[in-house]
C-alpha cells in the first residue's frame, strides 16, 4: 500500500504546487528533483502488494517508503503555507511588518530546503537498499479497469441496477418460505424467536432481508432491523430499536435517558403493537440477555428474527424458538449464482465465446464449496477479467484444496484484492474502517477519498466523477453492497461483515490504518502490524492519541459520544490531514489545539453541537468543512475567508457575527441548512464570484416555525449533488411554513412521503424552481394532516399520485409551470376543504378535473402567463 502514498505525493507536487511556491527561491527546483526520485521509487512498487507476505525486509522497506512519502507531504504543505503568507497583498503597515519578519521567512525557507535535502538522501538510500537486497519489480501484466476505458461501457457501468434493490436468493427458496411461514403462523400467538444459523457468508442476512422485505410492512404494525455485531453496546442497540420501530421523533428524546429508561420506553411502545424485530449478526448470548426485556410478549403474534454463527445463541432465548440452519448451495445453485455475477450484460454484449468461459466457470464455482459470498466475490472478480487465459490460470494455479481445508474465503478475497489498482485497494480498505453494518453515504466517502489523495486526476473527469466510478467499480466486483441508490447514482453503501473483517486484517498488516477500541490499542505496537498513519477510534479512549501516536495523517472518531471530552485533546496532531467525528451527542467545545492543525484538509463533524475556538481560522490548508449533520453553535468569523476552502456544508448555525463575516471567492459549494437571519448581501457576494458556486441557505426569520430554503445547486449528469438536504427528519418537527426554491436540491428522490409524515403541523408548503427533479410525486394516505396551502412551481413531474386520506384540510392548491404534468389526480375531488385551485402556464394539462371541481362549486382559476403567479411569502414574525 506504499504505492498509493507515493502516487498521491507525486500528484500533489505537480504543476499547481510548483507554481504556488515559485517565490521560494531554490525550493521548487529541489521539489522537482525529489519528484524524480519518487517516480523511480514508484516503479519498484507496482507489485509489492502481491508480495507483502514474502519477506520482512520487503515489508520494512515499503514501510520506510511510506514514511518518506508522508514527510514529503508535510514539506509541500509547509512550503505552500509559506508561499501564501509571502504573496499576500500587504497594506502599508503590513509591508513594514513583512520587512521586519523577512529574517524569519529566510530561516523557514532554509529549513524547508534542508528537509528536502534530507528526504532526497533517504529516498536514494532506500533505492540503494532495493538493489542491495536484489528486490526487483516484475510488474503485473493484468489489464485493469481504467477511467479512460470505452465511454459507452463506462456509461453502462454507471447505471447498473442496485445490488441492494433485489436480493439474490438462488438456492434459498426453501429457507425463505419456512421463515416466512413461521413469521405469519396465525395459530402461534406467542412471541417467537426465529433463528437463522450458519457460517459467515452463508446467506443468513440475505434470507432475513428478503423475508423482511416481503412481510414487514404488510403484516406487522412496527418493524426494525438492528445489527448487533461484535461491537455490540446496549445503548447503541436500544437506540437503533427506537429509531427503527418508533421513529425519529422519539429518537430525539434519548439524550437524557439511561439504558433502563429506554428499555421501558420500548417495552411500553411495543406492548400495543404486533411487531417484527430483526437482530442481525448476534455473537454472544449475553447480548440477547441485555436487551430482551425490551420485547413484551402480549400473545399477538409478534416475532423476532435472529441471525448468528453460533448455534448456542440460537438456543439461548427464553422464549418460543424456531431454528433454521442455512445450508450451503448445491452444485447447480452454485453455478447459477456464479454465472449471474460473472457475466453482467454490459460485459458480455456482442461476445460469441462465452461457452468456453462457462465451462471454466462451472469448475471455479464448484471450487467455492457452496459458500454464497465466496461465489459472489469470485464472480465479481472474474467479471472484470473476461480473458480466457486468466480463467485457465485461476483453475490451474490456485491452491483450492488449501482453501477448502481452511474453511474460509480469504484466498478468494486475496484474488479480488490483488486485481485492484493501488488506488482502488486504498478506497476499499478505507470503507472497512467504518463500524460493522454502518451505512456509509457516498458523498461523505468520496470527500474523504479525495482528501486522502486516493483519487487521481483523470483527463475529462472531475475528482468527484472519478471517485464515483471507483464506488461503482467496487460494487461491480461485489466488494461493497449498495444500500440505496437513485435513478442516476449510488447514495449509500455497506460492507459485508466477512469482507470487513478480512479488510481490517489486511489494513493492520499493511499499516493502512490502526483500529482502536481501548487505550491499550492506542499505546501498543503489535508485532504483526505495520506502523499506521491513520487511526480509527471505535470506543472511549482517554489517552492523548497524538502523543501516543505522533505524526498521524488521519483520525476517524466513530463513536464520539463515548469520548471522555474533558480528557481528550488534539495535542500532538499538528500534521493531521483528515479529521472526522461521528456519533457525538450534546455539546462539545473542540480543544483549542485545533488551531495548530495547519495541515488539515478535511474537517467532518456529525451529530451534536460543536463550539469552535477562534483559532480555527489558522487552518490555512482546509479544503472541506462538512458539518451537514451537526450544529455549529457560533460560526467562526474568519472560517469562510480561508483561501483554500472549497466546500462548506453545515446543518445548523445558531449564531454568527453576520456583518463581520466575509466569503472568499474560491468556494465551490456553500450550504447552511438552517441559518438565522442570513444576510441579503451574501447572495450578492456569491453572484460576483468568478466561478459561481453551488449554494443553499435555509433562512429562519426569527422563528423555527418558518423556513425558506433558497439557492442554486449545480447539476452534472452522473454526479450526485453534494449539496443536498440531509435526512428530511432533521427539519424542525414543528414547522408551520416551508418554502424550497433551490434547483436540484432534492434530486430525484420524492420528498412528499417523508415531509407528509414528519411535518404534521405544516400549514403552507411550496416546492419550486426544479428543487425536485423526479418524474413522480406521491402524497401518501395520512400525510400532511394540517396542510392548508400547497404550491408546486416549475417542476418536471409527469405523474402526481394523491392517495385517499392525504391532505384532508387542503384549502388552496396552486400549480404553475409544471408543463410535463398532463392530468390532475382524481383524488382532488374528494378533498372536502378545497376552496380554490389555480392552474398557471400549463397549456397541455387535461382540464377534466378542473371542470369537475368548478361544477362542484370550487373556485378554479386558469391563467396562461407565469406573470400571474405569486410565491408563498414567509413572514418575518411568529405565527
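Q: What amino acid sequence fits the structure above?
A:
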Amino acid at each position: 500500500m506504499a504505492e498509493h502514498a507515493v502516487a498521491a505525493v507525486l500528484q500533489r507536487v505537480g504543476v499547481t504546487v510548483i507554481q504556488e511556491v515559485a517565490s521560494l527561491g531554490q525550493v521548487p527546483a529541489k521539489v522537482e528533483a525529489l519528484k524524480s526520485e519518487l517516480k523511480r521509487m514508484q516503479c519498484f512498487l507496482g507489485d509489492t502488494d502481491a508480495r507483502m507476505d514474502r519477506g520482512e525486509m520487503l515489508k520494512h522497506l515499503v514501510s520506510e517508503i511510506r514514511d518518506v512519502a508522508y514527510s514529503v507531504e508535510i514539506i509541500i504543505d509547509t512550503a505552500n503555507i509559506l508561499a501564501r503568507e509571502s504573496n499576500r497583498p500587504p497594506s502599508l503597515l503590513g509591508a513594514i511588518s513583512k520587512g521586519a519578519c523577512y529574517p524569519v521567512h529566510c530561516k523557514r525557507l532554509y529549513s524547508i530546503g534542508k528537509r528536502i535535502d534530507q528526504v532526497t538522501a533517504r529516498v536514494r538510500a532506500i533505492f540503494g537498499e532495493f538493489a542491495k537486497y536484489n528486490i526487483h519489480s516484475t510488474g503485473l501484466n493484468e489489464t485493469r479497469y481504467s477511467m479512460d476505458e470505452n465511454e459507452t461501457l463506462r456509461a453502462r457501468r454507471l447505471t447498473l441496477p442496485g445490488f441492494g434493490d433485489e436480493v439474490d436468493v438462488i438456492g434459498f427458496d426453501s429457507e425463505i418460505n419456512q421463515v416466512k411461514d413461521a413469521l405469519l403462523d396465525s395459530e402461534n400467538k406467542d412471541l417467537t424467536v426465529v433463528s437463522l444459523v450458519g457460517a459467515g457468508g452463508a446467506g443468513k442476512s440475505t434470507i432475513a432481508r428478503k423475508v423482511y422485505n416481503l412481510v414487514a410492512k404488510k403484516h406487522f404494525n412496527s418493524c426494525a432491523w438492528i445489527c448487533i455485531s461484535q461491537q455490540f453496546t446496549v445503548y447503541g442497540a436500544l437506540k437503533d430499536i427506537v429509531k427503527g420501530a418508533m421513529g425519529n421523533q422519539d429518537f430525539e428524546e434519548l439524550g437524557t435517558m439511561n439504558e433502563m429508561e429506554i428499555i421501558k420506553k420500548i417495552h411500553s411502545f411495543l406492548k400495543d403493537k404486533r411487531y417484527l424485530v430483526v437482530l442481525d449478526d448476534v455473537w454472544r448470548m449475553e447480548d440477547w440477555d441485555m436487551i430482551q426485556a425490551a420485547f413484551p410478549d402480549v400473545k399477538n403474534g409478534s416475532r423476532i428474527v435472529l441471525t448468528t454463527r453460533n448455534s448456542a445463541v440460537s438456543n439461548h432465548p427464553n422464549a418460543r424458538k424456531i431454528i433454521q440452519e442455512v445450508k450451503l448451495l448445491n452444485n447447480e445453485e452454485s453455478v447459477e449464482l456464479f454465472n449471474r455475477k460473472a457475466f453482467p450484460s454490459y460485459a458480455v454484449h456482442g461476445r460469441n465465446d462465452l461457452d468456453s468461459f462457462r465451462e471454466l466457470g462451472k469448475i471455479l464455482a464448484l471450487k467455492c464449496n457452496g459458500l454464497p459470498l465466496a461465489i459472489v466475490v469470485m464472480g465479481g472478480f472474474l467479471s472484470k477479467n473476461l480473458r480466457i487465459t486468466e480463467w485457465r490460470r485461476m483453475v490451474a494455479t490456485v491452491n483450492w484444496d488449501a482453501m477448502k481445508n481452511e474453511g474460509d474465503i480469504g484466498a478468494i478475497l486475496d484474488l479480488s484484492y490483488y486485481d485492484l489498482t493501488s488506488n482502488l485497494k486504498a478506497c476499499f480498505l478505507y470503507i472497512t474502517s467504518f463500524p460493522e453494518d454502518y451505512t456509509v453515504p457516498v458523498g461523505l466517502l468520496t470527500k474523504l477519498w479525495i482528501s486522502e489523495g486516493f483519487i487521481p486526476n483523470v483527463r475529462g473527469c472531475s475528482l468527484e466523477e472519478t471517485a464515483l466510478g471507483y464506488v461503482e467499480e467496487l460494487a461491480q466486483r461485489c466488494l461493497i453492497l449498495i444500500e440505496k441508490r437513485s435513478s442516476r447514482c449510488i447514495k449509500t453503501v455497506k460492507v459485508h461483515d466477512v469482507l470487513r473483517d478480512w479488510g481490517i486484517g489486511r489494513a493492520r498488516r499493511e499499516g493502512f490504518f490502526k483500529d482502536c477500541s481501548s487505550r491499550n490499542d492506542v499505546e501498543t505496537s503489535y508485532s504483526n502490524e505495520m506502523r499506521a498513519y491513520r487511526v480509527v477510534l471505535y470506543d472511549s479512549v482517554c489517552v492523548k492519541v497524538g502523543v501516543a501516536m505522533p505524526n498521524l495523517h488521519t483520525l476517524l472518531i466513530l463513536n464520539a459520544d463515548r469520548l471522555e471530552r474533558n480528557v481528550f485533546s488534539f495535542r500532538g496532531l499538528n500534521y493531521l490531514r483528515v479529521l472526522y467525528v461521528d456519533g457525538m451527542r450534546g455539546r462539545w467545545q473542540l480543544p483549542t489545539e485545533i488551531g495548530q492543525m495547519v495541515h488539515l484538509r478535511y474537517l467532518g463533524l456529525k451529530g451534536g453541537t460543536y463550539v469552535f475556538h477562534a483559532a480555527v481560522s489558522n487552518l490555512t490548508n482546509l479544503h472541506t468543512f462538512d458539518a451537514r449533520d451537526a450544529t455549529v453553535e457560533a460560526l467562526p468569523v474568519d472560517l469562510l475567508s480561508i483561501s483554500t476552502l472549497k466546500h462548506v456544508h453545515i446543518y445548523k448555525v445558531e449564531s454568527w457575527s453576520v456583518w463581520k463575516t466575509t466569503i472568499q471567492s474560491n468556494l465551490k459549494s456553500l450550504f447552511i441548512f438552517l441559518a438565522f437571519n442570513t444576510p441579503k448581501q451574501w447572495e450578492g457576494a456569491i453572484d460576483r464570484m468568478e466561478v459561481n458556486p453551488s449554494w443553499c441557505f435555509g433562512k429562519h426569520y426569527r422563528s423555527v416555525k418558518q423556513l425558506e430554503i433558497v439557492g442554486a445547486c449545480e447539476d452534472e449528469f452522473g454526479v450526485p449533488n453534494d449539496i443536498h438536504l440531509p435526512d428530511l427528519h432533521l427539519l424542525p418537527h414543528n414547522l408551520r411554513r416551508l418554502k424550497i426554491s433551490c434547483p436540484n436540491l432534492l434530486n430525484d428522490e420524492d420528498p412528499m412521503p417523508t415531509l407528509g409524515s414528519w411535518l404534521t403541523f405544516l400549514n403552507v408548503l411550496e416546492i419550486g424552481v426544479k428543487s425536485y427533479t423526479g418524474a413522480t410525486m406521491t402524497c401518501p394516505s395520512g400525510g400532511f394532516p394540517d396542510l392548508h396551502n400547497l404550491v408546486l412551481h416549475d417542476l418536471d413531474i409527469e405523474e402526481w399520485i394523491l392517495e385517499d386520506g392525504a391532505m384532508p384540510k387542503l384549502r388552496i392548491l396552486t400549480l404553475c409551470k409544471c408543463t410535463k404534468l398532463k392530468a390532475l389526480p382524481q383524488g382532488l375531488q374528494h378533498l372536502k376543504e378545497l376552496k380554490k385551485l389555480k392552474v398557471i402556464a400549463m397549456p397541455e394539462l387535461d382540464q377534466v378535473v378542473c371542470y369537475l371541481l368548478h361544477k362542484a362549486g370550487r373556485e378554479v382559476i386558469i391563467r396562461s402567463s407565469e406573470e400571474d403567479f405569486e410565491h408563498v411569502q414567509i413572514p418575518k414574525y411568529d405565527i
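Q: And what stands out in the fold?
A: The two ends are 59 Å apart (CA to CA).
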